[in-house]
Amino acid sequence: MLYESLETEFVQAKAGKIHVLKNGIAEKEKNLIFLHGMGANTMTWERLIPYIGDSYGIVLIDMLGHGLSDAPKLDYTPKLQAETVSEIKTSLGIGKYSLVGNSYGGWIAAYGCSKGIFTTMDGLENLVLEDSAGLKKEVEDEIKKTGYDKFVEYMVKKSLEINGNKEYVMRSIMKSENSEYLLDADLLGKIKTKTTIVWGSNDKIIPIGYADMFLNGIKGSRLITIENGGHVPHYFRPMDFAKALAESID
After folding, report:
1. Is 203 helix (H, G, I), strand (E, B) or coil?
2. Half-sphere exposure of 218 (CA within 13 A, CB side)
3. pLDDT for residue 17
4. SS3 76
5. What is the pLDDT of residue 169?
6. H or E element: which one contains 245?
7. Spatial CA neighbour of 31 closest among 39, 41, 20, 40
8. Longest dimension (CA), the chain
9. What pLDDT shows up at residue 164?
10. Superfamily of the domain at 3-249
11. How far apart are the first and last CA of the chain?
12. Which residues of the chain have pLDDT under 70?
């Protein structure tokens, strides 16, 4: 299967139209829903798709404010993003599914699970957090090193360099008020879904040491390390990530 072979659809959610690429969700019993990082879009998964077997339906989502999805001027909170993803899942008629989130997408996935937005009752079977952002300790450590303003400017600048993202969206994601949504021990402890943490051994954006905080915070979770995977193992080591993904959801 190739990325180019996926079917395009725009799904109306409360906050706007969301761009989705999908394949096989009507025929497959189980599905994989992928959530990309901040400033990215569905194309981030292009290298991975050929390594995913035919056993699963695939759903790639341009999250609100990203890619071809609408980018209304509102507050881009993790809660809104998670609720929008949940709307899309329901609109597409997806039954059993595994949720895979990279970086910012991992934050959205983990936050949504901790708050009951994604649950086993709505079909969630597995949570896969790939080099996940949103950890309170990691953000606090970065701010201590650089200061809040410099931290925000760095993150916004990096996101704007990718795919021509809208600055007001990136700044809304990074605003200080969103600190209430950061993942601490309490929120991680509320995640009851079977969880696998996948991390690139040489991630320079969120070093692998923070993976242990997810591992210790989410009861029963396990860690798979991908050598030389960087911050986006599914892109730099797609075959290795596909193997880790298969181990996580089977």
Report:
1. coil
2. 27
3. 98
4. coil
5. 87
6. helix 238-249
7. 20
8. 50
9. 66
10. Alpha/Beta hydrolase fold, catalytic domain (3.40.50.1820)
11. 20
12. 148, 152, 160-164, 176
Predicted local distance difference test score (pLDDT) of residue 55: 85
- Give the full edge-to-edge strand order of the sheet including 57-61: 7-13, 16-23, 57-61, 30-35, 96-102, 124-130, 194-200, 222-226
- Residue carrying structure tokens 């880790």: 244
Q: Which residues of 181-215 are buried (b: 16+ CB within 10 A; e: fewer)?
A: bbbeeebbeebbbbbbbbbbeebebbbbebbebbb
228 Rama class: left (phi>0) / alpha (psi -120 to 50) / beta: left
Residue matched to tokens 């600048």: 157
Q: What is the pLDDT of residue 163?
A: 64
Q: What is the pLDDT of residues 27-38, one digit of tens each?
A: 788 899 999 999
Predicted pLDDT of residue 227: 97
One-letter amino acid for residue 37 of the chain: G
- Both tokens of 132, joined, read 């996940």
Matching residue, tokens 């360099």: 161
Report the 10 Å Cβ neighbour count for 54.
11
Single pTM value for the model: 0.94
Q: Is-contact 148 120, C-beta < 8 A? A: no
Cβ neighbours of 103 (radius 10 Å): 25
